[in-house]
Design goal:
- The complex is a heterotrimer of chains A (148), B (52) and C (253).
- With 148 residues, chain A is α+β, with helices and mostly antiparallel strands.
- Chain A is built from 3 helices and 6 strands.
- Chain A has 2 domains: 31 residues; 90 residues, OB fold (Dihydrolipoamide Acetyltransferase, E2P) (Beta Barrel), CATH 2.40.50.140.
- Helices cover 27% and strands 27% of the residues of chain A.
- Chain B has 52 residues and is mostly helical.
- Chain B has 1 helix and no strands.
- The chains are: A alpha+beta (148), B mainly alpha (52), C mainly alpha (253).
Amino acid sequence: MTPRRRKRLTAVALLVLGVGTAAAITMTALQDNMLYFIAPSDIQTSELPPERNFRLGGLVEAGSIQRDPNSLAVVFTVTDGAHSVPVTYAGILPDLFREGQGVIAQGRLDENGMFQAREVLARHDETYMPPEVASALERAGAPHGVLE
Amino acid sequence: MIPDFNYAEYVWSSYAIAAAVIVWQAIQPVQRYRKIVGQIKEDYLMRSEDQI
Amino acid sequence: MWTQIKLAFHKLGSPLIFYRFAQTLIPWLWGLTLITLAAGLYQALFVVPPDYQQGDSYRILYIHVPAAWQAMATYIVMTILATITLIWRIRTAEIMAMTAAPIGAAFTLICLVTGAIWGRPMWGTYWAWDARLTSMLVLLFVYLGIMGLYAAFDDRRQGARIASILILVGVVNIPIIHFSVEWWTTLHQGSTINLFGPSTMDASMLPPLIWMTVAVKLMFGALLLQRARNELLDQDQRKKWVLEALRMGGHDS
């Protein structure tokens, strides 16, 4: 390699290194804003102002869904295993919404600790399998649909 | 197995949109190639006529 | 071995050799693309079973995922070519780095659109500003930026060098796209296919994904060679090698 090319190689390496460092610093500084949702366990530690809107993410606790037969209103519990938060919502739920499913609710906590959701999105997990395999796994007692 | 076409409309539309983008990508370079080769040939013929 | 690689590297730097190489390879690449694409589409649409949660909607994945992988792979190829451009100034590398950008943009577009179409019924929204979706949108704009910057220069070689610098700046986005689902919480699910670890897709659903991925890679090769060949011809319209390549050298055509 000629000295000229070596010089260019150094410049290229420094450019990539510099941009990478700048990006890493920016992302560390913006860490909290890069999160799309927070888990029930993180609500206390995330220092959110009480009236602020945020997105709550977790699994719909099994057996917690209560639908109002006369309206679209629904109450369910979002859990991350350690903590759980009750959520109330009135509106159309996505196809994947069901017990044990990952969900992301946007809204705010009221004075009673109830999460008033304005929007509920289903979060799909990265598992794909045919229904027969899923039911076989269920019979064997293996859990699936775990939210990271 | 008998093919089952009863998928939701959006499944087919996403395949259709992807196909449209791919076809556009495939046709574009072929057309450009024809155009450039045409230009070069025309230019070459004109220059060889000048020499005569 | 090393000298042979070096020799091939220099040979492909010659426009005429590159042109002939591309002309030979393009029909083969397209032929293999069509075969693998047919196999992949047939399996994706008619053979693989539905998913236990999503039913048949997950079949969108067989386009979305190969397109997403190719959108990122194209950028990695461009980064290598941009590095060669900046250090060795090899013209065919410059041209390939520049002509890969619109192909990468097309695959990014396919990825974003199919993802949105799937997201509406499954998530409940077409779009979310989470880290994965946003970084993928940034990739589209980076591709468009590279194309725009290259087009803005009258001197193509100077344009290629400046745009190569932008390619190297933008490569920081590639690890961000890949790791976004691990570093932050996102609406987008985590990786299903893991090269270093267990994949969370049932084996019966994998074959179409493999076929489609191979098809997309071959298609990328064909498209890149076609575009690079065109750009070379366009830039060198009056050069001797062009007449030789088109068999017009000295004779009446």
